[in-house]
Amino acid sequence: MASLAIRRNHHHLFSLPYNILKWNSLSLRNIHSINLARSQSSPSPSQAELEFPVAGTKFLETFTEEFEIGSRKIVLETGKIARFANGAVVLGMDETKVLSAVTSAKGDSVKDFLPLTVDYQEKQFAQGVIPNTFMRREGAPKERELLCGRLIDRPIRPLFPAGFFHEVQVSANVLSSDGKQDPDVMAANATSAALMLSDIPWNGPIGMIRMGRICGKFIVNPSMDELTISDLNLVYACTKDKALMIDVQAREITERDLEAALKLAHVEAVKYIDPQVRLAGKAGKGKKEYKLSLVSKETYEKIRTMAEEPIKTIFTDPAYGKFERGEALENITRDIRKALEEECDEESLKVLPKTVDRVRKEVIRKRIIDEGCRLDGRRLDEVRPLYCEAGNLPVLHGSSLFSRGDTQVLCTVTLGAPGDAQRLESLVGPSTKRFMLHYSFPPFCINEVGKRGGLNRREVGHGTLAEKALLAVLPPEDDFPYAVRINSEVMASDGSTSMASVCGGSMALMDAGIPLREHVAGISVGLVTDVDPSTGSIKDYRILTDILGLEDHLGDMDFKVSGTRHGVTSIQLDIKPAGIPLDIICESLEPARKGRLQILDHMEREINAPRSQDDRNSPRLVILKYNNDAIRRLIGPLGVLKRKIEEETGARMSVSDGTLTVVAKNQAAMERVQEKIDFIVGREIEIGGTYKGIVTSIKEYGAFVEFNGGQQGLLHISELSHDPVSKISDVISIGQQVTLRCIGSDVRGNIKLSLKATQPQPRRTSNMAADFVSSTKETPKVWPPVNEVSNEQDKQESSMEDIPLHNENSDVASSSSSEILIRSAAECDEVEKSAGLVRNSKGRPKTLNNKRSDNKSKVVSPQKNDHDSPISAFDFFSSNYSSELRTDFQSSFRSSEIDNGNTSASRDVQNFKEAPAEAPINAKNLKIGSEVSAKVHQIRAHGLVLDLGGGLRGMYKFEMDGRKDFEVGEEIQVKCSSFSGKGIPVMSMLETD
User: 147 phi and psi, to 5 degrees?
Assistant: First the structure.
C-alpha cells in the first residue's frame, strides 16, 4: 500500500504543468518563506511569484457619518455589510450596533394597499449567549420584537407616496448590545437611513429620539439604568417640521410638562436628519420609477357623482348604528356596481371600493369642518354614553364590564405567585414582568368570521399600551408581591377598545382588592384637517373627542391618552398623513384631559376604593423564610413533594433566594398548604405556639410526637388532660394527629408539649388555702419548669416526678398550672405565722434509732445523683404505686426559696414532732430547709417514699454506698433539701452527732 501511494504521488507530480516543475529546486519551506516575506516587507512580487495564481484583495468602499446627540456619539455606516440589499445601514451607539436592510418586490403591484412588513429581531449572539431552547435557536417573534417592529412601522408608513402598493420589507437585526442602550430607537433611525439609500420612493428622512426625566430634568438618549429611575419614557419621531409618532409611558406627568418634553424632543430628533441626507448623497441610489395605482380623475368624478348624495343622506341621520350604517353604505356600493356592470366600465369596477371609500371620507370631513357635526350627532368634545359595572363575575378575583357607546370590554384580574411573572428574554431591560395585560380582539366583536392564530401585532400593541397606562398606579412590589394578569376581552368594537381596556382594567384591579392609588381612564382624540392641495399646508382643522371607529378610519389622527386626575400615564399617537404640526398635537392634550375626567367620574361612582374580598374568592399570599436545607426537603427530589402539595391544595409555590412564596385561592386553601409545609419543613418553634403532629410512640410516662418538620417533642401524661389520666392509650394512640401547644423546653433543649393547654379550662371550686397564698404580697414571679431530659433514664425520672405525691385525702387545693412558684423567705415566714406554724429551736436528735446509730447521714444533692449515680427513677417509683398517688398535687404545689437560718440546728426529735401537731406540714408551708419527722411509706430499689404528714409525700434517694435496711413505718428525721422540676420534695437525712 505504501508503494502504491508513492506511485500515485509521482503520477500527480508528473502531471503538473511545466512552469510548476521548474520550481523543483525549491523546497516547500522556501516557498513559504517567500510568501511570508512578501506579506511583510516586499511590495513587488518576484518573477516566480507572478507565475502563481494568488487571491486578490477586495476593497469594500465604506461610507460613514459621525455625529453627537445627547452627549453620545452616533455612527452611520454603509457599504461593508449587506451590500446586495436595496439599502443597508449599520447604526452604532457606544458598543451597541443595529443593522437595518430594506428591499422591495420587483414587477407591477397587484394589490390596493401598501404591503409593508417590518421584522425586528434580537438574537442572543448579540450578547454572547446561546439560546436556552431545545433547538438552541430563537423561536417565534417575542412580544418585545413585535412592539419594536410596530415602533419602526408607524412613523415610516405615512411617508410612502399615495398609490405606491409594491411590497416592501424592512429587516432590523441587533448585531451587538452592551445592555446600556435600547436598540429600538436605533433600529428606527437605521431604517430611515436605509430607505434613503435605496431606490424605493419615500418622502423621508425621519428622526427618532428617546427622552427621560429624572428629578425634573429632561435627559436625551437615557441609558437603561437611567430609565429605571425616570418618571418619563418618551419616544418621539418626526420630519423636519411635523410630528409622525409619539409613544409615552409616564408616572402621572402633567400636560404642561409633557408639552415641554415634546418640544425638546422635536429639537433633538431633527439632529438625525442631516447626517442621513449627507450619507445618501455619498452612497445613495437614484429613486426608481414605480407604477403608482392612482384613480384617474374621470373615473373618480363619475363614481363621486353616483355616490355622494346617498352617502350624505346616511351620514346626516344619527339614528344609524354602526352595522346599520355599514349595511347602508354597502347597499350604495352594490347599486353603483350594478350600474357600472350594465355600462361595462371595467376600469371603474376595479377601483370602485377604494373610490367609494374616498368619497365617504370627503363627505364626512367636509361636514365636520363646515358644520361641526359628527356621524352620531354628538358635539366635537362630547363623550359617548358610559356604562360601568364592577364585580360582575364574583367567582373571579376581580372583574368589570365597561361600555362607551357601542364599544364594550370585559376585563378580568387573576392574581398569582411571584413565580408566575412573565419571563422576558430581551437583550435589555428586566428579566421578568409581574404585571401583564393581555388584549384579545375576537372576530365576533365586529360580527365577522375569522381564525384565531398566534400573537397578533395589533393585539400585542393595544395590550401593551393599556398595560403602560395602569402600571403607574400599581403598588410597589415590596408592598404587593403578587403577579397580576388582566385579560381584556373585546365584546363589541366601535373605536377606542384599547382605551376601554384601560378603564375596565382599572375597575377590575380595584374589584380584586389591589390597592391602586387612584383610577386610570383613557380616551382617544381624533383630527380632521382641511389641506391646501397646492402647498400641503393645513388651512383648517377640528379636534374630535372620543372618536368612533369610522372617524378613526376616515380621520387623520388617532391620539390615545390615558391618565389619572393628576397627570398622564401613557400616550400613543398614530397618524395617516405625512406628519402633523406639533402645536396641534399639544392642543389636543386639553380635550383629552377633559374627556378623561368625565370618564373618571363615572368609574368612581361604580367603585372608588379597593374592594375587601371574602375568603371564598380572595387569594392569599404568604412569604416564608427558610434555610436551603429546609427548602430542599420541601421541594423533594426533582420537585416531587412541591408538585404533590400544589396538586392536593391547588396552591402555587415559588422559591427564590431562601424565600418561599405561597399563593392560595382562599384562606382555607392557605391553611391546608401551610399545614403540609409545616409538617415537612417546620417553622420556628415558639412557646405558646400551636402545632399539629403525629403520635409516633407511647410510653408509660407520656408519648413522643413528631411535628414541625420532623422534630420530636414529649407529651407528658400530666399534659394530656385537665382530668387525671390513668392510661395514656385511653386518650391518644400511635399514628393519631393531634393539635398541641409548646409549653417550654428543658435544660437540654428538649421540647415539651401539652394537649390540655389547647383544651378549655374546666371549672373548679374555690380553695381557701389557694386563695390565701394568692393574696399575699405582690404578684409572684413565675419560672418555667426544667429538668426534662431526653435520654431514657432521665425520661423515666421525669415521669416519676410527674406522679403527684399528695395523698387522695389531702385537703390541699390543686391548680392547673405546672409551673413552680418561687416565694421569698419573708413571704414564707409570713405565711407560716398566719397558719400558726411553730417550730422548736431545739437541736436535732443524735441518732435516728438504735438500729442505725452508727450510720452517718449526708445531705444528698438530687441534681448530682441524677448524673453520678445509676439510680433509675422508674425503679424508685414503680407504676404500681403511681395509681395510688395520682392527684392534683403537681399543679398546686409551689416551691420556696432557701430558708436562710430560720430553723434551729439543735432541735430534737420530740420537739420537731410536736410542731406538725399544731400546724400540719402541707404543700403550702413546706420549704427548703424544713426539718420534719417522716415515716417510711414504701421501700424501693434505689430510695424511699416518705410520708411527711398531712398526706404529703416526699422522696429520698440512696447514696451509692447507702444502707437499704429500712422498714415500712419507721420514723426518720429528714430535711427538705430541694424540689424536683415538678415540685416533689427531695429529702435528705439529718446528720447525727
Answer: -65, -40
Residue among 277, 88, 86, 80 nearest 194 (CA): 88
For the chain, the first-to-last Cα distance in angstroms comes to 119
Here the cell at position 248 is 409615552
DSSP-assigned letter for residue 808: T
SS in 3 state form for 283-350? HCCCCCCCCCCCCCHHHHHHHHHHHHHHHHHHHCCCCCCHHHHHHHHHHHHHHHHHHHHHHCCHHHHH
Q: Are 401 and 504 in contact (CB under 8 A)?
A: yes
In the chain, the amino acid numbered 781 is K
CA pair distance 666, 621, nearest whole angstrom:
9
- Nearest Cα neighbor of 165 from 211, 237, 109 is 109
C-alpha cell at 624: 416564608
Backbone angles phi, psi at 419, to 5 degrees: -70, -15
Question: What's the CA gap between 124 and 426, in Å, rounded?
Answer: 8
Q: Is the confidence at residue 236, as pLDDT, over 90?
A: yes
pLDDT of residue 444: 92
Whole-number Å distance between alpha carbons of 154 and 524: 17
Cα 285 to the center of its chain, rounded Å: 52
Buried b (16+ CB within 10 A) or exposed e, 364-379: bbebbeeeebbbbebe
- Identify any residues that bridge with 67 across adjacent strands, giving them in sequence order: 74
pLDDT, one tens digit per residue, over 67-104 is 999 888 999 999 999 999 999 999 999 899 999 999 99
* CA atoms within 13 Å, Cβ hemisphere of 677: 28
Average pLDDT, integer, range 723-749: 84
Cα gap 728→717, rounded to integer Å: 7
pLDDT at position 54 is 64
Whole-number Å distance between alpha carbons of 404 and 869: 90
Rounded Cα distance between 922 and 945, Å, is 16
Ranges of beta strands (E only) in 493-581 are 521-531, 538-545, 557-563, 568-575
Task: Name the amino acid, one letter, at 962.
Answer: G
For the ranges 684-688, 833-837, 924-928, the lowest mean pLDDT is seen at 833-837
Q: What is the 3-state secondary structure (H, E, C) of 709-774?
A: CCEEEEEEHHHCCCCCCCCHHHCCCCCCEEEEEEEEECCCCCEEEECHHHCCCCCCCCCHHHHHHH
- Return the SS3 of 229: coil
Give CA torsion, residues 627, 631, 633, 634, to 10 deg: 140
CB within 8 Å of 163: residues ≥ 6 apart: 292, 293, 294
Tell me whether residue 44 is exposed, middle or buried, using C-beta atoms within 10 angstroms of its C-beta: 0 to 12, 13 to 18, 19 or more. exposed
pLDDT category of residue 247 using cuts at 50, 70 and 90: very high
CB burial of 306-318 (b: ≥16 within 10 Å; e: otherwise) equals: bbbebbbebbeee
Which pLDDT does position 251 carry in this prediction?
A: 95
Positive or negative, the CA dihedral 922, 927, 933, 937 is positive
Sequence-ordered strand ranges (E) for 181-242: 207-214, 217-220, 232-238
pLDDT at 961 (0 to 100): 56
Peptide bond into 205 cis (omega under 30): yes
At 855, the amino acid letter reads N
Separation in Å, CA 209 to CA 185, 261, 909: 7, 11, 108
Alpha carbon of 665 to those of 434, 480, 641, 891: distances in Å? 18, 16, 20, 45
CA 703, distance to chain mean position in Å, is 43
Query: What residues pair up with 220 in beta bridges, in sequence order?
Result: 211
**Residue 671, helix vs strand vs coil:** helix
Q: Which spans in 623-688 are helix H? A: 628-635, 640-649, 667-680
